[in-house]
Design goal:
single chain; alpha/beta; Udp-n-acetylmuramoylalanyl-d-glutamate--2,6- Diaminopimelate Ligase, Chain: A, domain 1; UDP N-Acetylglucosamine Acyltransferase, domain 1; 2 domains; eight-stranded parallel beta sheet; 35 strands; 16% helix
Length: 315
């Protein structure tokens, strides 16, 4: 086993009919993973689509092999599939398609062992403190160090030279629940975390694993400082630094060489461009362009925020 080998799928495709207790199978087929229509990259993915734009994304994504939708949308979807020549696509439908999707997602984890695709193994020169906890389903490269009290969860890939500081938690579940009527459904995490070469996750930082069978990704030569929290499905580009106490919510995309100051909070699904800078304590709820410099609560372009602050202080 070579720790740095490319990841492999963990499940063989499963017939859609095996999940007929959750949804009606309108068109037969198979799937072995779940994911968002536009982001899915694992072959054999089931996606949920409740609007036409998501149906279009799912049909266009070659990684998607099954779509679950509502009875009202299913006939049009079948027409779109035929027009696109996607003979491989299965179709399921349910009155509450989102609930059925997440019930299938949970069943893939609990009944079939769905998890992030990797080649399990730990390089022999890895340094692991005796008090650290490392799940067996991980892929760890050469010259990695894992400090006292750290935890490396299922589905984690640590590339060469990564350092995990004391008490850091990598590959843990994040908060994700959905309320359907009076029912609060806890949605389990199937994905993992991949941390690029020479990156550091320092004391007490938390990096959540992805919700679906993909990865929360931290690039090469990054620093995740003490107490920072990285949500599920986040992507961080090479050379970026997230300083102490930063909170980044799920599926945010952070570019290369970004600096985020202490205590900043980044809203979920936010896009932050390359070489951007986020000042101390900022709350970012809108996209940040490449080389943008943001400050304030809520964060604004820095020059505008300083003008507003100057006006306030002059009163």
């Amino acid at each position: 086993m070579t720790p740095d080998a490319p990841p492999q799928a963990v499940l063989d495709p499963i017939p859609a009919r095996n999940f007929s207790r959750f949804a009606q199978v309108v068109r037969p087929g198979r799937f072995c993973a779940t994911g968002f229509a536009d982001l899915a990259s694992v072959q054999g993915t089931l996606s949920c689509a409740l609007e036409q734009r998501y149906l279009d994304q799912a049909v266009a994504n070659a990684a998607v092999s099954a779509i679950i939708t509502t009875p009202a949308l299913a006939p049009g979807l079948l027409t779109d599939i035929d027009a696109a020549g996607r003979d491989d696509l299965a179709v399921l439908c349910a009155d509450d398609a989102q609930r059925a999707f997440y019930l299938i997602h949970n069943a893939l984890i609990s009944d079939h062992g769905l998890c992030a695709p990797l080649r399990p193994g730990i390089h022999p020169d890895t340094q692991i403190d005796p008090t650290a906890i490392v799940d067996p389903h991980v892929q760890i490269g050469s010259q990695v160090s894992i400090a006292a009290g750290a935890m490396i969860g299922r589905g984690t890939i640590l590339d060469a030279g990564v350092h995990i500081g004391p008490g850091a938690l990598v590959g843990v579940d994040g908060h994700f629940s959905k309320r359907f009527g009076g029912e609060l459904l806890r949605i389990r995490h199937a994905g993992g975390v991949r941390i690029g070469a020479r990156s550091q996750v320092l004391a007490g930082a938390i990096v959540q694993r992805a919700l679906h069978s993909d990865f929360t990704q931290i690039g090469t030569d990054c620093v995740i400082a003490p107490g920072a929290q990285i949500g599920h499905g986040v992507s961080i580009g090479d050379g970026s630094t997230l300083t102490g106490g930063v909170i980044v919510a799920g599926y945010t995309r952070i570019g290369r060489d970004v600096w985020i100051g202490p205590g900043a909070v980044i809203r979920n699904l936010t896009e932050i461009g390359d070489n951007a800078r986020i000042d101390i304590g900022a709350v970012v709820a809108t996209p940040v362009p490449a080389r943008g410099h943001m400050a304030g609560f809520f964060a604004l372009p820095r020059a505008r925020a300083l003008r507003m602050m100057a006006k306030w202080m002059a009163k």
